[in-house]
Write a structure and sequence with these properties.
Layout (H helix, E strand, L loop, with lengths): L10 H51 L61 E4 L2 E4 L4 E4 L35 E5 L9 E2 L16 E2 L10 E6 L4 E5 L3 H4 L12 E2 L4 H9 L6
Parallel strand pairs: 3-5
Antiparallel strand pairs: 1-2, 3-4, 4-7, 6-9, 7-8
Length: 274
């Protein structure tokens, strides 16, 4: 009887297969990573758009009156609760603490995901359980007192226009309403920025960053605007685009350095002079 011959890979053939698998992995991995980034960017834009639609509807139901971006004014704050990285601060992780009390909660269908970018890595540990922070989105401070618009803190500044009524917004397509804020910059519910010092004729050396916008999307950030559109904006300077996430509070109100052009863009999309 003829002996059966064993079939299988030789060592050389196995090496070729492994090499091809490695090559395919190297070729496909960047594409898959880009797909994941693109998917999260699309979700982020959708969340910002939904939130802004709710913001519009709230104003229409309240004679054009706009929500404030912080506590303490005569108008309701769009969402309460200061965030940090403490597990004992339930505003960080408990949806029922602040989100369900937001004036926008009903306008976004009671969906907590709308308040958070899917790419936000921020978590806190509460009773041994790691929980995602409930919010990554902040509102432009032009819908409050605009205390940092004139570069130095002044809640009574009159150099730059702030908005309390929907119809008073001068350039809706260039007035951002919501944006993702860098996790380490998050504190209250407003994203503050300076317009003074960030104008086209200003020297790059006087440009400053008050609060850091996020860089979740490969060095880019989600923004929504008063006309209802939302988009992902790519940062050009490393100071913002590559600001690491350390899960600790970072110094704010700092020199913009190589991100001065980004701060000029942000100022141009914040408000106009009075």
């Amino acid at each position: 009887m003829k002996a059966k011959t064993q079939s299988g890979f030789t060592l050389i053939e196995l090496s070729v297969v492994l090499a091809m698998a490695g090559l395919l992995s190297a070729v496909l991995a960047p594409g898959l990573a880009r797909t994941q980034v693109g998917s999260r960017s699309a979700q982020c834009v959708n969340h910002l758009r939904e939130l802004t639609l709710g913001w519009h509807q709230y104003a229409e139901d309240n004679n054009g009156g706009l929500l404030d971006c912080v506590d303490g004014s005569a108008r309701p704050n769009w969402v309460t609760g200061n965030l940090d990285f403490s597990g004992s601060n339930s505003s960080n992780w408990d949806t029922n603490r602040d989100l369900v009390k937001s004036p926008l909660w009903g306008y976004v269908g009671g969906a907590p995901s709308v308040f958070r970018c899917p790419a936000d890595p921020a978590t806190v540990i509460n009773n041994g359980v790691r929980r995602p922070r409930v919010r990554s989105i902040s509102m432009s401070h032009v819908f409050g007192a605009g205390a940092w618009l004139d570069r130095s803190y002044n809640p009574n500044q009159k150099v730059w226009r702030t908005y309390q009524v929907l119809g008073s917004i001068i350039r809706p397509t260039q007035t951002f309403v919501f944006a993702d804020e860098h996790p380490d910059s998050m504190n209250d519910s407003a994203l503050s920025s300076a317009c003074t010092g960030n104008q086209p004729g200003d020297s790059p050396g006087v440009s400053s960053i008050i609060d850091y916008p996020a860089n979740y999307h490969n060095g880019a950030c989600g923004f929504s605007f008063a006309d209802g559109h939302a988009d992902i904006h790519k940062w050009l300077g490393n100071k913002i685009a590559r600001m690491p996430t350390t899960f600790t509070a970072i110094p704010l109100n700092v020199a913009a350095l190589d991100s001065w052009v980004d701060m000029h863009w942000l100022a141009a999309n914040t408000t106009v002079r009075n």
